[in-house]
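Memo to structure team: turn this sequence into structure tokens by end of day. - J.P.
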Amino acid sequence: MRNIFTISLLLIVQMASSQTIQFKMCGKNSKVLPTNDANGNDQRHKGQITLDKIRLGIIGNSISNPFYIMGDPSASFPTTFANDVFVQGCDNNSNFFNCNACSKCISPYYGNYINAGQMEGKMLGNFRAMGSNNNLLIQSVGDTSVVCYVSKPVDVSAYKNKKLEITVNYSGNSTDGFSTKNISFHYQYNNSGWPARGQLFNKNSNNTETYEDTYGIDFVPNAVEDLTDISAIEINPNPVLDLINLKVEITKGFSGQLYIVDELGNESFIENKNFQPGAHSIQVPTNSLSAGMYFLKISDTSGKIKTAKFTKL
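Reply from structure team:
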């Protein structure tokens, strides 16, 4: 069965500099155990989420004439998923944000190892993320875990003042008592955090269908130019526990703010500062933050921003 629907919301791309959009698809399904069935065959596909295709185009054209396609090898500049395993062997992984301790942990890629994004979330036990037939397969996540695929930024600078829409093709598989529990899809602009209004869908039922969903996208915020008065910004350690040691190189002094926002855009720390030219070390407390992904931002009075991403353990 295929569900097709369109929500005609407005998206206007307003850019003073490069504008980008990113996509994030998350989900959870049954932990498929044992890994092999009685015949010795891998059965993790019995609890599986498949990302088939993402198409981006001017409103009304995401299907017929998209300017960006992921997952279609027939596209002029295809971004597909290579036939390879990206993540598996996570029995010893206690990190709930990445796959660093898994026996295999590489970024999804296509072609000659061209990066296609990254996997994030709670990848444990016999979890597996892999590419097959140009699709991304997310298998054996577990009922209490969530794993996400985050795309590389897509440049939409050429579509200033145009309405855009996204069409997503995806499916969930549930076989032999294993099931797909949840699938959600999000977008963000300019690496600014994943706002609540950027969630296009969140399906919590037993998702066993093949979907092709088309969405218009909400207003893009005013373009944020890069704060060129900062030549370098570095967060140590990252991931962080209770304190960030921030190193900043300032080329030209300015007045502004240093603040932290979570993935929903909520501010959790803010400080007004006068930034002087030169190299600076700034300590930022993080002991009050919950575990998760955050963005540290420095802005001047005109609204230009420099952003660094970090993980709170």
